[in-house]
Amino acid sequence: MTDTIFVTGLSIHARHGVMDHETEVGQRFVIDLELYTDLSEPARTDRLADTVSYAEVVATTTAAFKNTNYKLLEGAAGAVADAILSHFPRIRAVKITVHKPHAPIAAIFDDVGIMLTRSRHP
């Protein structure tokens, strides 16, 4: 059985991008996370020690996303996935969506970004 913990709409200002002004000024990114785990034990015990702290997930995500300036969203999202899987042994897999609503594209659009899924190797 796989259950899901989710965080949506995490807004982070960072300096990712290919263009100079993106790395100098930065911009707002929005991250959505789905963390796949088994929640049967915390559902039974009602103890925080038996699950994953949402606050710690947000702190880990923010640090991993901001610590390095990446040219590509793929690199930034990969760093978040690696950090989550290394810091939270209860998480079996993570799906990360990174939205870049102000990407420097000469078009009118609502959103652009990437979505990646990473899982623990057996």
From TrEMBL:
Gene Ontology CC annotations of this record: cytoplasm
NCBIfam families xref list: folB, folB_dom
Record key words, sorted: Folate biosynthesis, Lyase
Biological process, per Gene Ontology: folic acid biosynthetic process; tetrahydrofolate biosynthetic process
SMART domains reported in the protein's UniProt record: FolB
Function: Catalyzes the conversion of 7,8-dihydroneopterin to 6-hydroxymethyl-7,8-dihydropterin.
CDD domains: DHNA_DHNTPE (cd00534)
Organism per entry: Bradyrhizobium arachidis
Keyword Lyase: yes
Protein name as it appears in the record: 7,8-dihydroneopterin aldolase
Domain Dihydroneopterin aldolase/epimerase residues, every copy: 5-118
Taxonomic classification: Bacteria, Pseudomonadati, Pseudomonadota, Alphaproteobacteria, Hyphomicrobiales
Keyword Lyase part of the UniProt annotation: yes
Enzyme class per UniProt: lyase
GO MF term list: dihydroneopterin aldolase activity
InterPro entries cross-referenced by the UniProt entry: Dihydroneopterin_aldolase, FolB_dom, GTP-CH-I_C/QueF
